């Protein structure tokens, strides 16, 4: 048998417990990353990194060679993986001096990857979702031959297993296994692999009797974990991938973010990588009836108010008390126009968390460049209702001009601005102005250039009852399309 690796496999496997350094990286294109939690964790453990210009480039396609490097970094850790060297070409198009030769050789040796029938690997080619999932399943311990990941219909078997164990969880849209994987998708699938349970086989032997070869192979079974690492990811007596290979990485799945949303908190030892809110079970940006929430959660019975928690901008608010979540309650509502209302249902203890995040409008009064002592920041002056205990600074590298109208969110829990973004500007002639007949403060909508814009709950500026029809106005919209500021 050819010796492909300069490191003996047995030695390498004893070095595969990884010590990682924490801290989410501040990539210059963070705003373009859809899977922030996955990218932050995978970059913190150095499985994948950004580019020298400080970007991550999330939509760049993953090559087959780069995928082999990710797999080696997962199993061996980046330090050990970087020392891999191929003593002989593992494929005829992968010479020993190829950038990814050591990674490809290791993955071939351990049965995680395979080449093409013509003896090539084609390292510069893009990698399909099916192919990358197959590699990740190999890292988890699944035997390709035994599980049917080779030969006819291999992709069906790969997809079935990968979906069942959650490797595509939180993917935006449907999984398309024939599409080339991009960098942030690769991060998401690898991140889900960290949380997946490893498998092993009781039997794996070959007996030759005369001219007959008999292979004895048991079914894959979940690997047990009774050691100190159990609970780093999930205290279930089973060995999750990160509990075996990233022993300093810890997940607190009972955390809450700055808006009190249920969240995952990731740490390496005592140093935090980040806290990331879970995906809500229902989301609204207008008023939501309790009966609507009941329906959207797919409940079969009412949930008592005792098991319902409600938070507004991160704190409990007497104006939004917890109520029974019942089928027929069309009277009581949560949220409002321009308020991000998210509902989280915990099926294990039959409880509900409802969080409301208001969008406020303000203007930029100052932009301060970064120094060696402090990051760049902007100063925001509220134009609408000012949150309690308001602090007006927000650290950001985004560029704003003084007097720009901006949208911001504010955590009353943390007493700080959480986000700032430019408001969308619309100019034109008002043809219809709508207000409540009985309540002048109940602002409803303006129609400008034939388009109707409903008012946000936090609208400010000109009172709609004072708006003159057939006159020109400028309005600013929040991120949900509601009118949040009006000026003549």
Write the layout of secondary structure elements.
Blueprint: H1 9-14, H2 36-44, H3 64-76, H4 78-82, H5 101-109, H6 129-139, H7 144-147, H8 154-164, H9 183-195, E1 199-200, E2 204-209, E3 212-217, E4 221-222, H10 241-245, E5 249-256, E6 262-268, E7 271-277, E8 282-284, E9 288-289, H11 290-296, E10 308-312, E11 333-334, E12 339-346, E13 351-358, E14 360-368, E15 377-382, E16 393-395, E17 405-411, E18 416-422, E19 424-435, E20 443-448, E21 451-461, E22 472-477, E23 483-487
Parallel strand pairs: 10-13, 21-23
Antiparallel strand pairs: 1-4, 2-3, 5-6, 6-7, 8-12, 9-11, 12-13, 14-15, 14-17, 15-16, 17-18, 19-20, 19-22, 20-21, 22-23
Helix pairs in contact: 2-9, 3-5, 3-6, 6-8, 6-9
Can you characterise this structure?
There is one protein chain. By secondary structure, this protein is an alpha+beta fold. It is 19% helix and 28% strand. A five-stranded antiparallel β-sheet has the order 16-15-14-17-18, with no helix packed on it. A five-stranded mixed beta barrel has the order 19-20-21-23-22. The longest helix is centred in the first third of the chain and has 13 residues, at 64-76. The radius of gyration is 27 Å and the shape is elongated. The termini are far apart. The model is unreliable at 1-22 (pLDDT under 50).
